[in-house]
Amino acid sequence: MLLFRSEEHIDRWCAFRGLPRGGTMSVEQCWQLARAWYGDKLSPDWRRKTLDEAEAALAAIGLTEPFWSLRG
Amino acid sequence: MHRGGSPTDQEVTTPDYHGGRTRREASTCITATPVWHRAGNPSVEAAASCELTGQAGSGDDALDREVRLHVFDRAAETARVPSPAELAAALGRARPEIEESLRRLGAGRAVILAPGTANIWAANPFSAVPSSFRVDARGRTYWGICIWDALGIPAALGADATVTARCGDCDEELILEVRGGTLARVEGIVHFGVPAARWWDNIGYT
Lengths: 72, 206
Hints:
- The complex is a heterodimer of chains A (72) and B (206).
- Chain A is mainly alpha-helical and 72 residues long.
- Helices cover 46% and strands 10% of the residues of chain A.
- Chain A has helices spanning 7-17, 27-38, 51-60; strands at 2-4, 23-26.
- In chain B, helix 2 (42-53) crosses helix 3 (60-78), helix 2 (42-53) crosses helix 5 and helix 3 crosses helix 5.
- Chain B is globular and about 45 Å long.
- Strand 2 of chain A pairs antiparallel with strand 9 (189-192) of chain B.
């Protein structure tokens, strides 16, 4: 889960390591995901998200492609 | 989640995260990264999952909850993740008891332990060791083990923050700013190398 300067830098990083390109998101999407995922992390009532809740958090920021499916 | 070596007993408090295409050792470290598996003990996982899912569970639930809350409280307040010894002293418990609790919490993914130890590597979003993702908030310096966690720190704290990261390819510094709950400065694009269904196959690599 890395940050890159640009799409070109992602492509170069993948090529250098012989890795397939994965999934990308904007920093804004990542921020919204971070808020959904960690916004209540310090609450005494925090509990781990269910698969449905986790997938809903990803879908809420537009990540619905198979790459982002937690169920495989 | 990281680009460099993994935290062993010696490395838990020694930063050794590096990356960038000019550093060939980074790819070697990635391939040599030990695998963080989910705990293979069903009873441990079941006990941990009860506390973490809010369901009624074993008598260990109360201790696990106490440990978890203390870990995250200390991480948020001090930017440091406590060690098992520190937890034992703070909570007035025997160290073996605390370490067993941490293993249950690790099995339940409430924390990530350094392989083969009861030392916390990350109480997500708070990294126990310095990394390539620095977060300055509340007058302190925190660390995330990835960009998602780095942004998770101001989200968890409800605070303004400056995230200083480095391009995974060229190592150029990239700065993000959170102000009043929104992004005030944005640089770069986020890339996940591992499909979501496989994130926990090797969480250290992810």
